[in-house]
Amino acid sequence: MKQGCTIALDAMGGDHGPEVVVPSAVRYLAANPYVDIILVGDEPRIDAILGKASRERLRIRHTTQEVAMDELPSKALRGKKDSSMRVAIDLVKEGEAGACVSAGNTGALMATARFVLKTLPYVDRPAICTAVPSMHGHTHMLDLGANVDCSAEHLFQFAVMGSELVSAVEGIERPRVGLLNIGQEEIKGNEQVKQAHELLSKSNLNYVGYVEGDGIFVEDIDVVATDGFVGNVALKCSEGVAKFIRHTLTGQFKRTWYTRLSALAALPILKSFRRTVDPRRYNGASLLGLRGIVVKSHGGADEVAFENAIYIAEKEIHANIPQRIGEQVGQHLGREQYRETA
Amino acid sequence: MKQGCTIALDAMGGDHGPEVVVPSAVRYLAANPYVDIILVGDEPRIDAILGKASRERLRIRHTTQEVAMDELPSKALRGKKDSSMRVAIDLVKEGEAGACVSAGNTGALMATARFVLKTLPYVDRPAICTAVPSMHGHTHMLDLGANVDCSAEHLFQFAVMGSELVSAVEGIERPRVGLLNIGQEEIKGNEQVKQAHELLSKSNLNYVGYVEGDGIFVEDIDVVATDGFVGNVALKCSEGVAKFIRHTLTGQFKRTWYTRLSALAALPILKSFRRTVDPRRYNGASLLGLRGIVVKSHGGADEVAFENAIYIAEKEIHANIPQRIGEQVGQHLGREQYRETA
């Protein structure tokens, strides 16, 4: 039998706050009988949105503050100790919740999570990891923006954490791990990447070598490690290209009465296509390397997307991600070989 | 009346060598009566492929060596003085050709072009620039891989060169210039990007500020400057996502007999869509910052794609790109303000 678990939701985070988080919670609870949810935020507002919805396995934890989407992480950390974001993370720290999910300000979420939960031994920096759709299913990519300047050791740690996440959550025994690089010979990559390549080649990860930008989406690879600047640009580029292509395709179908008719005929295909590449199905980025589970939802997430982020949190609870990463990272990073090289 | 010009083609470069370059040249000459072409490479091979095609405005310059696609740039530069790539660049240096086009090894092409042609005054490093399709037409992006580690001044120079290229070739008086960055607050970018932002804000370029990865494809922007690592990943990512989406869409249409029928109905739309996002229409990257015009074609380019690279070279000859960039870069980079900051 599936074990029960409790997930804390930052009800005030994101562009839509409780208007999206509360209905998502209600839907999620209805579909998942072994989950309890704590809605953290302004009780009267949450209460009003809940209305007559079932409150079974649902609690509200009232808070008086909110972290703004553009607030400086340092300010949020110092001045907002009763924010919905902070209290949701505190609940994980105190063991009241197995994980928390927030659609709030990424910088503040990372800074607060790091301060409250602390990083695992051997992990220098936590990283943000998400899955992106690819021709072979999907690829997990990290870091996505938490660390703009990374050393070879950081990149190596990201690779270990990503591999462990995929192994635990997807049940792949030895995930194929790649290192993001550029294609040209000789000028192949910067110093950090070349050194990380050395570390990875000597590790017992299933390291397949360098991957170029297109490889994330077309190659059969499970984990791609890169620094937060490049990872963020790669992720956002993929969103931009997908939007551009959707826009162009829609424009073509609307051009004339004939193309409008063909669009009608092609509707089921286009719908099924949209479902396959629906970014909402990929909503939910994991903050890895912490002593607790924190999942970041896209700020603009709708209910379907936010539910997916809750689902990721639940999967990570069942897979016991922080403990597994702690053990594996310890094994990899505690090894003589790594320490000597690093 | 349009003035005549001469373009040298590295006939041996690329995955397909003369099999693609020679027919492209023949087609290009037929369609463009004011252009002369010099095919540089193995004369007997070129001659055999030319067969009975018209040789009007076409010359062959025989060479005895070839630069391999995976050859080290330093080796190509030292040891291959009679390679088709080197001689095509020499022809530009000697004024026999107004530009050269090569589908060969990017690293070798950049190293050889830099050695033979030299960089313009005030330009520390040449950069590779190409247009990518966007919701508003297209966006020029640079650098795409020539410079993996860039200072703020390098990024600034890329922005000036890109702006001047777009202004001259597209006739846009004050191109909108952006600097590629990541979205999160506080952790917004690395030091180089922040400093380049300062330099650009004080310049008289039409600088619109930071652009995120998706902005390249959805925002109304003419030039995006970034370092060669990030630019290369961004470009390849866009190619990968486009390939993935094409693959998924095609898969959906082939699913059942009904979807196959709808695909038939939607065929004209899909064709017109493919034309709009056809990467071949964007083939041809400019090596900017040199005292001569060098255009790099994709190694795997077919005839249509290679013709587009020749077209870009012709446009740059008519726009007198190196001289214009030289003047503008001098104006921008010779300014007191820039020198003081830098």
Automatic annotation (TrEMBL), chains A, B:
Protein's cellular compartments: Cytoplasm
Enzyme class: transferase
Family annotation (Pfam families): FA_synthesis
Reactions catalysed, as given in the entry: a fatty acyl-[ACP] + phosphate = an acyl phosphate + holo-[ACP]
Pathway: Lipid metabolism; phospholipid metabolism
Known EC number: 2.3.1.274
Subunit-structure text: Homodimer. Probably interacts with PlsY.
Function as written in the Swiss-Prot or TrEMBL entry: Catalyzes the reversible formation of acyl-phosphate (acyl-PO(4)) from acyl-[acyl-carrier-protein] (acyl-ACP). This enzyme utilizes acyl-ACP as fatty acyl donor, but not acyl-CoA.
Protein name as it appears in the record: Phosphate acyltransferase
Taxonomic source organism: Thiorhodococcus minor
Annotated gene: plsX
